[in-house]
Amino acid sequence: MDILLNKPMLASAARVAGTLLAAFTLTAAIVSYRYYAFRRRLPPGPAGLPLLGNLLEMPKSHPWLAQTEMHAKYGPIFSMVFGQSTVIFLGTYDIARELLEKRSNIYSSRPRSVMVGECISDGNRSLILPYGEQWRGYRRLQGAFLSPRMSNTYRELQDLESKQLVAEFLEHDDFFKRFHRYSSSLTFALAYGKRMLTGLEHEVKGVERIMDNLNKAFITNWIVDSLPFLNHLPTFLKPWMKIAKELGDEEREFFNEIRNGAGARPGYNWCKDILTMKEHKALTDTQLSYVIGNTYEAGADTTTMTLQVFTLAAVLHPEKIAILKEEIERVVGRTRLPTFNDTEKMPYLAAFVKEVHRWRPVLPGGVPHAVTADDEYMGYHIPKGATIVGGHWAISMDKEMYPDPDKFEPERFLKDPDLPYSQFGFGRRKCIGQYIGNNSMLINVSRLVWAYDIRRGWDVIDGKKVEAHVGRHDFVSGFNSPPLPFKAAFIPRAPEVPEILRREFAEAEQSTQAILERIEAAQQILKQGN
Ligand code: HEM
């Protein structure tokens, strides 16, 4: 009886199931057709799956290495699809220049970053702002105090910080921390009018914490970044907002607090300088705190990491250091430290610093841009909204442009001083602090090599002193990629070196106020000359 009764029901259920299956198959066929049709027009790349794209195909650790391998397979431009996002990878300098520089009117935005950009920083963070009025407002202010001419007015402060740095290595070999003190103190003094004498100050620890939070937040896969509509849910349904609020409050309070202190300090600083520019009126008070706060954080970490890479190169390549030392001594002699004027007469030094940048870029994955209009390149479709990655590592390892690319070879930049490198990024978003960054590299590298024989550090194993391991390829996997901690020894090159370093540091102008006043006077002259 039951069976008889259920027969029509079963038939009807089978019909429904059949219809659902047909509908599902048809939808799947349409989705697949549309996905593969879209995929075919993009630059080449792994085919991936409809809906997911290549979500499962990019390794989490050191992804720039996998990207470089993919360039070998697919060519200098390839694409991947991650859910709704299309990412185009550029693996040669020429292609990055063609798109990110020559077509910068549409390649200068940033990919949407819901968690970091919107939830944590509430749309205020300079580095990830979309291309538009707010970003231009930030850039105009930063451009006024970071132009090449203005950057050269900061040399006296760099000279003092650098003299402290080289003298510190007489007593300390914790070079990671010493470089961070140098970079933080330099940028903090310019931005807020106060030097950081030990590197242990609250203002240094604060920025370290913020950068640490940011690096972690950047590499975490937040569901709201994959599904941005979730951000419209009521707050109690958005658990990520609790973290975002804590981190956001912390950075806002920190940036406001350090800016408040700056107004009352005597002499020049960026916080005071921007208030003299009419462009500041277009921005809110919080935005002004971010313009300066973000410049401080951008300047502190990058220079530190690049000096760490220099130390790695020095330890691994004493033969190149010997050539550099010879050039420095030819220009300077052995009775005093090199000055900025000396560095201008040192072509091998300039080549050496460029090779440090190229050999191990500290932002190896590059800083992604986004394209704001549909475009076509080499016959490929570049869809509006795609993320465009000029991969610094991939470009640095391009064998055509840099033969034997893993080799540390400053001579390549000596042979061709115009040989480009990608370390500072591209186009309108290119690093605006590059002139200060470069001056820091030139003065510190020349002085460290003049003063010290930089060797591998030591470990004591079973009571015996053995050379510590230093890995050519041991780097942190993250947005920032400094070398993993390693040991180096800074041995004075001659008995008189300690006395010279201490004397030069003691004789340098120590008054931050006097230096900042001179910077202000020099800038006034430059501004009047305009
Ligand atoms: C060796 C040191 C440095 C390196 C390697 C470096 C690298 C970079 C890179 C790759 C970008 C992104 C470029 C792009 O999107 O294409 C950038 C942006 C930026 N850098 Fe640097 N930088 C350094 C030093 C500095 C210094 C000393 C400052 C400030 C004093 C600074 C301030 C900035 C700012 C404000 C941005 C944001 C630009 C924007 O997107 O609006 N940088 N930097």
TrEMBL record:
Pfam families, alphabetized: p450
Swiss-Prot/TrEMBL keywords: Heme, Iron, Membrane, Metal-binding, Monooxygenase, Oxidoreductase, Transmembrane, Transmembrane helix
InterPro entries in alphabetical order: Cyt_P450, Cyt_P450_CS, Cyt_P450_E_grp-I, Cyt_P450_sf, Cytochrome_P450_fung
Entry keyword Heme: yes
Protein name: Cytochrome P450
Cofactor(s) required, per the database record: heme
Family to which the UniProt record says this protein belongs: Belongs to the cytochrome P450 family.
Keyword 4Fe-4S set for record: no
Source organism per UniProt: Acrodontium crateriforme
Transmembrane residue ranges: 12-36, 77-96
A Gene Ontology molecular function term of the record: heme binding
Residue positions binding heme: 431
Matching CDD domains: CYP64-like
